[in-house]
Amino acid sequence: EYEEYAAKQPDFELNGIYYKRLSESEVAVTDKDEGHKNGNTYVGDLVLPASINKEGFEYKVTSIRANSFERCCKLTSLVIPEGVTEIGDFAFSGCAALKSVKFPDSLHKFGTSAFSGCIALSSIDIPQGTEIISDKCFFGCSSLTSVTLAEGLTSIGNKAFYACTSLSSVVFPSTLHSIGSEAFMEC
User: Fold this and answer.
1) What is the 3-state secondary structure (H, E, C) of the chain?
2) Global pTM?
3) I need a surface site. Which of 32, 74, 101, 184 has the fewest CB within 10 A?
4) What is the spatial distance between Cα 128 and Cα 113, in angstroms, rounded to a whole number?
């Protein structure tokens, strides 16, 4: 059991952000106690770094793991750096004060429920590199009024924008091949 628990823990912390080593040159942002959901306590505006230097080693930040910022109720804005390719399941779920997010063009996939329950989020621009918006990604983002989906997006998952009750504008790309069941229900 200890090995399983230890494997889920971050490798290090730097400036209040926790990281898991993926390789000799890459890290993922993670929760401070992934196995127990103690949650992070990020407050205000957060700009994630594109790379970090730890003990003389340079690491590129390439992903945000599941549940990393879940229920950070005082996180108000977020900038995700170029180089991040994936946002994990429930990564920002329940961040009720999150008003704005800047996504990098390198982003390919949004995980399941990645931003569900972000009730203050008012608009999003999905970058050109994104191919997949997974199930329930923006579920219940009740202040969301506009969504721009860039070229390259091929799939919108089930209930991806379900109950986004303020949504009045969506721009769809020509590359979109599938829209999941109830993706825009109760909008």
Assistant:
1) CHHHHHHHCCCEEECCEEEEECCCCEEEEECCCCCCCCCCCCEEEEECCCEEEECCEEEEEEEECCCCCCCCCEEEEEECCCCCCEECCCCCCCCCCCCEEECCCCCCEECCCCCCCCCCCCEEEECCCCCEECCCCCCCCCCCCEEEECCCCCEECCCCCCCCCCCCEEECCCCCCEECCCCCCCC
2) 0.92
3) 74
4) 20
